[in-house]
TrEMBL record:
GO terms for molecular function: acid phosphatase activity; metal ion binding. This is Purple acid phosphatase. It is an enzyme of class 3 (hydrolase). Pfam families: Metallophos (PF00149), Metallophos_C (PF14008). It comes from the Eukaryota. SUPFAM superfamilies: Metallo-dependent phosphatases, Purple acid phosphatase, N-terminal domain. Residues 344-374 form the Purple acid phosphatase C-terminal domain. Its cofactor is Zn(2+); Fe cation. Keywords: Glycoprotein, Hydrolase, Iron, Metal-binding, Signal, Zinc. Its EC number is 3.1.3.2. It catalyses: a phosphate monoester + H2O = an alcohol + phosphate.
Amino acid sequence: MRASGATLVLAVVAAAVLNAAVLCSGGFTSSFVRKVEKTVDMPLDSDVFEVPPGYNAPQQVHITQGDHIGKAVIVSWVTVDEPGSKLMTLNIYYEVGIGHTTRTFWFTTPPAVGPDVPYTFGLIGDLGQSYDSNRTLTHYERNPAKGQTVLFVGDLSYADNYPNHDNVRWDTWGRFVERSVAYQPWIWTAGNHEIDFAPDIGETKPFKPYTHRYRVPYKASDSTAPFWYSVKRASAYIIVLSSYSAYGKYTPQYKWLEDELPKVNRSETPWLIVLMHSPWYNSYNYHYMEGETMRVMYEPWFVQYKVDVVFAGHVHAYERSERVSNIAYNIVNGICSPVSDQSAPVYITIGDGGNLEGLATNMSEPQPKYSAFRGPASAMQRSLSRTGPMLTTVGTVTRMDMPYKLIPCGFSTDSGILLMILQLLNLEQLQSNGCI
Ligand SMILES: [Fe+2]
């Protein structure tokens, strides 16, 4: 496909719209359980990959947050026959295309950033373009919690599974997810399937298709590369990190994160969420310890700055940690076991969006103490029923010296391990829904 891309930043001028829908109960919202067996990608002539009609029709339309605070969006799309598309804006509606064929989409402007602003995120990773991928996206669209933004934890199209990293599969993926991402922002994280490093076919520059197709507002958070950046959204401060960029001391990512964490004002955004692709705490026998070196570098900061929750993908399964840290080690003392630490984040792996590689089911035994729960969807649902909400501190609490809200009813899940819904509720909503 001879595709030309276009990206524009659109300032958001409409009034903020609060989503008043509240689904308070933690737990799960679907009894669906994904089959364990490997799946296959949908064929190129699938209806979800359909090219929109009309000469040079814009396709693969997607939006993401366009600045640091949510007052802008980045709109991107692809035209096949000729470049030169334009963007016209009309309030929260936007029209892409020029002359022959234009298409219109819309989005909801986010609420102003603030400590009591409710918001609902979808959590999806490792999506791909298989029949199960389509189920995941459908479950997300139909979830009664009505996710407003997707936090995507990496591995988008899996185009690199095809000969020569066939970019046609990047195009099909863009058309497949358009039905959601053209209407609400997805916050992107780079995974290993975005690297597209293929010196055998002369491609020596990593991340080329990903960075050309999926723009992010990294400069707005003083980042120097699109692989690590931050955005504020409602009551959350979201930091995106790159498992596949240099993160050692003195590197650009290290220096950025070192400067970034002190900037987070928990009075304004009480939730501090980190996204990355490769999990730090993973007791499956897949990608085991791949995140270890990054954990060694950054975990002390996560504890110091009291990150709430870290979401990762990569392992095609679900796992949730206790609040633990493993930062006491040095080469002299040999202390290298995770310990309970109420200043530490909860680590959640949600890497089963449905890609063709299938589920991860093989775990190290016995289950490590730090691992609060792991397992297939059916077992996870039993666990949730038994133990209740996933963040267990109730109500408004003060954690260390900062006013801090942990929302006991903040999580629900859909489809077991296919995706999660993260709901940030305010005190009034919690009370009115009987959560506290
Ligand atoms: Fe991955």
